[in-house]
Amino acid sequence: MNEKYSGKNVVITGGGSGIGFATAKLLVDAGARVVITGRSQATLDAATERLGRNATAVRSDVSSLPDLDALAARVRDELGTLDALFVNAGITSAMPFEATTEEMYDESFAINVKGAFFTVQKLAPLLSTGAGVVLTTSVANVMGMQETSVYAAGKAALRSMARSLSRELLPRGIRVNAISPGPIDTGSLENAMGKEAADQFKAERVAENPMRRFGTPEEVAGAVAFLAFDATYTTGTELVVDGGVTQL
Ligand code: NAD
Fold first, then answer.
1. Ligand 1 atom closest to Cα of residue 151
2. Which burial class, exposed, middle or buried, applies to 52 when counting CB atoms under 10 A from its CB (0-12, 13-18, 19+)?
3. pLDDT, average across residues 207-225
């Protein structure tokens, strides 16, 4: 255990699994106090068990403004102020555009876009001078991939918000950046499309990737910690962690 982030207070939405969990683990292991959120109490309980006593779980749906108000009140009580906010909660929905229903569209935007925006708005009063906010976009926001039109459009909206929110929070000395993961093996694809389709999708992503592999949640977590704490002259940008697939 190192103490690099000792004394730092962090909120991670969707921190019970995948990239959010890996980031919580990295930060807790380096001395930070972390509040993770999610919709499933069982997932949150399992996560806090693994993270230890410097992690607290709050069940909170990012698409619900009353839940976000309650989260802000709880964080104020538990941590007081915040040094970093990782806006990570999101759902991956793969669907041909002809088959996409209004309900799917609304759910994707309610969680991935509206949820992210109001997470920042509700927690912003707690952010201290010098704090870092990290929004989670995706390489889908600059690629024309199959069956991702709604998801990709939502992530492109977040890319834009990273710039506008940077401008609005700059007077308070708060930086806002985006992390853009490429293919990261977290199990979320299997959840979104089933194992068979996920296996096929994953084989295609590996074949096209310059590094010929998926990334790990831990590789994204390191980049998130860099943006949140170490990138002190960086705001409004997007850091891509994708094995080079959008760059080479
Ligand atoms: P994941 O499913 O393990 O993590 C998403 C987390 O968000 C889960 O813990 C889930 O419970 C939570 N969540 C979902 N809806 C929520 C809601 N309404 N309120 C609160 N929490 C909610 O998947 P992941 O791959 O770790 O995804 C994390 C983020 O990274 C997402 O925003 C995703 O779009 C993005 N991303 C992932 C990849 C990838 O390849 N895995 C690629 C690009 C972007």
1. 34
2. exposed
3. 98
